[in-house]
Amino acid sequence: MKQYIIRRSSYSLLSLFLLSLTIFFFVRVTGDPATLLVEPGASAADIAAIHQRFGLDKPLWTQYGLFVWSLFQGDLGQSFYYQTPVFELYLDRLPNSLLLAFVAMSLSLLIGIPAGIMASVQVGRFWDGFGKLFTLLGQSLPSFLVGLVLILVFSVYLGWLPSSGAGTPLHLIMPAFALGWYFAASHMRLTRSSMLEVLGSEYIKLARLKGLPQSMIIAKHAFKNALIPVLTLAGINVVVMVNVAVVVETVFAWPGIGRLLYEGITFRDFPIVQGVVIMGGGMIVIVNLVIDILYAIIDPRIRLES
Amino acid sequence: MSSFVYHAERPLLSDERSGLTRRGLLGATALGLVAGAPAMARAAGPQGQLTWGIHVSLAPSWFDPAETQGIITPYMVLYALHDAMVKSMPGNPQAPCLAESWSTSSDHLTHEFVLRPGVKFHDGEPVTADDVKFSFERYHGVSHELIKQQVAAIEVPDPRRVRFKLKQPWPDFLTFYSSATGAGWVVPKKYIERVGEEGYRKAPIGAGPYKFVSFTPGVELVLEAFEGYWRKVPNVKRLVMKVVPDEGTRAAALKRGEIDIAYSIRGELAEDLQRTAGISLKPVVLQAPNWLYFPEQWDPKSPWHDLRVRQAANLAIDREGMSKALFLGHCKVTNSIIPYTFEYFWQPSTAGYDPGSARKRMAEAGFAKGFDAGLLYCDASYANMAEVSVNNLAEIGIRARLQPIERAGFFAGYSSKKYTRGIIQGASGAFGNAATRLAAFVVKGGSFAYGSYPDIDELYPKQADELDRGKRGAMLEKMQQLVHDKAIYAPIWQLGFINAVGPRVGESGFDLITGFAYTAPFEDITIKA
To answer: Is the predicted ipTM greater than 0.85, yes or no?
Structure first.
């Protein structure tokens, strides 16, 4: 077990190292941030001064070394644009993203799970077709379009909800729906397939033979088992929601991490982009590591096989 | 011994600043509410709140004039929080602000400024000559090396007087001190020394009409009226600058009344707002001209070497039509690459749109059937303009293919002189005057000049050494005339930046300062009664 944990942890560290290397060099391929901090036509001396100020005049490997060294010290660097430590910015935005992710995930589970169950017990009938259409729309409609249509209907025409910003529960409704719908679609699909698998198993057939009512079979026997993969996916999706709700947070001017990443990309603020990606990647790596270890504890075959 | 002296108008007395003189107060009392209402509203001090929908994320570096980069955006905050010795104001691009007067010695080596009496920072401390000196020395923004290299010493003979001694005569000192850099914006020395740089960034204090209240990165900036502001007491008590990056969301928020002023609304959204009752568009012509540039004109084998071809291209561009289609007709066609607001600007003849004459010139040049012009390089965010140009040029036989490049990549390629063939659609919003713009884009060795002409190059050093404004202006006008006559560029326009305001706004502050994209001066902004 100890060896297994050490091996898995090493893989995680290797993943993070590769992620840091990739994001560090990829973000620099996008161009020079100095050109976005001055007007076109600025002198070479002004651009050189910005390079010097942000350490961009140093060789790339030196910059990378400094970046990794800072990471080991828990420092994500200083934002070029905000001139504030990236970690501070990240922590400022994190509660907003967690709140949005929590509400969006709740909505997506509230919609996705019942819809998936309905679709699985009525295969080929109205609810199944409706569910498929719903998931198709949820996964294929771009979130900026969903966001703008919601704003148009509920803010401009009906005047029920504020168009943007944060501060009250009303501000949460539209961004949470726009974000949650996409994930509701995947939760619905997984619930449906998982339910179908469980409903085809021997113990459900036995329950039916024993004459248990359909509602009890679904609620008491099938649903609990079908829920495990859905909740596993939901756990990972929350991490994704926290870190990459870029479009939804931008459309609704929601001050979360997704918008921070958008700002970082827009202004070529390398430390922000690197910091958000490393934090997001780190969360996913840690969640996966914990899941791997838990699986190994629950099922010894996994650690023995590996 | 001053060769040039500038005196400000008499500052307002405190009673006048509040909108009421003693006699006025008596009159208002006598006339009652009917006649006295506006005056009474002012006498009650700043009131109400206005909310902005800002199109970009506000950066803390914009709260500190020392950080000013060469872009216009930070000034949307600087005009509220801070004040400068001399700055652009309504009707005067070099208006006396914290300095009530200044003078230049006859040898052009000394510039002396006299501070306005009784001016205070937000913490109540007086603005002194030491603060002016400290602010200049602390400045490390755009062109700081250039301006500091020119200054040999800064003397403070008394608390209201500051003297800049130059190493050599520099006719552009005031241009750089007042508008092309943030070096003339004054910050409180004692406060910064007390709280440190980090502390200042978190809680900035200035001498502007509004005080800093709070800032949430990426969310909003909240400001409150500074009633001790020297020019006048601001009308609006509280300003909230909310960051709303999406244009559609800004338009929706304005329609709902969640915000009162929306920056940067384009195309169809602007048209929609124009049709909405209570909302009005406030377009502003930016000091950022766009143009087409022909980098092959110095190659004798290229069709662009022929002046008639370049003139034909100039005649082929339907600037007004393009402006109507893309910016609701709000762009200003100046036919120059120098902003019309710049010092020493020379106005060329009107840009004509005449495809018939253009074809004729093409035929005279031996290109009756046109030619393949290769690629038209442009900043991708303005590809819509370039697309129209490509079509316009095609109508007279100049066949170009559009090559949009992401902004940073485009300007990096443009300045590194990578686009030696084809056409370049360029732009510049850099500060300065006609001389600085010509240096970058026309004169030999300029950052964006792919070639040059000896007669223009010859005039450049002469004007730089000329201390007589009239003679220097004549030389700069001559240079601009040569640029026009040689059709080095096909200028398109100065961009019309469209903003919108809601029904609560009285005076929005848009376009009060010529060429300034945003609302200012903030103390002039009002809410409708």
So the answer is: no
